[in-house]
Predict the 3D structure of the following.
Amino acid sequence: MKRPPFLYRLSVNLAARTAPLAARFDKKLARGLDGRRGLAARLAAWAKAHRDPKRPLVWMHAPSVGEGLQAKPVLETLRAEHPDWQLAFTFFSPSAERLAKNLPVDVADYLPLDRPADVEAALDSLLPSALVFSKLDVWPELTLAAARRGVKLGLISATVAPHSSRLRWPTRQWSQPAYEALDRIGTISDDDGKRLEQLGARPEAIAVTGDTRYDSVAERAERLDRTREPLLRLGEVGASTFTIVAGSTWPSDEAVLLPAFADLLVQLPTARLLLAPHEPNPDHLAGIAQRLHQLKLSRPVRLSQLEHAKPGPVIVVDRVGILADLYALADTAFVGGGFHRAGLHSVLEPAVFGVPIAIGPHWQMSRDAGLLLERGGAVALPGDARHPLHSQWLVWHHDAEARRKAGTAAKAVVAEGRGASERTTALVRELVVKR
């Protein structure tokens, strides 16, 4: 079995050595480093107390929240169908900490750094029967070390964007042995399968199983309880109110969104904006308040203060974990991330409620956005979007049929994508049963 290239190992070691310095200027990186302190000891302690080597263990890894949501329905089904199996879940980004705590697994923690000693320690503790990656985050050191031990390897909801950096040097060369080692790969589409072959995956290992997020968002929407807070309080508005829910926004999104909303209020004073920033930290919330002040709009009301404050036209969501439910209140949605190149956030969460969606110009890395645009469930805005966004909102407000038609198209995209969880779970189950 091959080992990762020397240059890859050297790069990982250099990154690990420089990370503490970089963490002084990056709060998210600092949080990730803090979370990994004592990781090996925690896994070893869990293994000593709870690991039963006679029972199969499936180790699922997802880099962040989105990929974790793809893994969630598979883990839930495995737990229900095979209560005798043990389940482990790891994540890379600190943003997935909260999700990890609510998954039906026996142990959840950060992914160890991709260095020989770190991954060997984790493998010694977990003793996995199968190691499964969600979406594309296949780590060479861990993957090849697991393969040498006879661990079955899988990849689910796999997708590779046409212009992904993984298809270029040096990442492609570094990761090729790891993708080649995968036993089973469930892709979202045929095109994703072809691109995975370019990364080194064996054609006979690939099958199209779909994207489990479609099932995940649909099932969450079906379980939604509109009588609980804050949905009940936010839903107590007049029928004339035009509600826009803007989710996972960054300052670059808000630079377009808030001026467009200020223009809308001139013509539609009853309009309401529920704004959920991607990172609701104090600096970001202060920046939103300052921009609204510059636009001569009233100070935003924070969701946490809504019980004791009179709601204004802008309500800022200052907590995480509820955005997907808030889209149920929307007449239209704005999904953030499209006005910079870090990536568009989930468009499926509003689509499942039949809500028409506006996104920024940088959406090309999102297959879901492409499907919604093709079907008419979403519109893509230009870079200078203040006036186009304002105009689109007016169209969707004044023309209820146009809004209904776009929302129906969006909901249909989600409905057509369902069924992936069942197929994906079967693929993972096969890794364990056919060992």
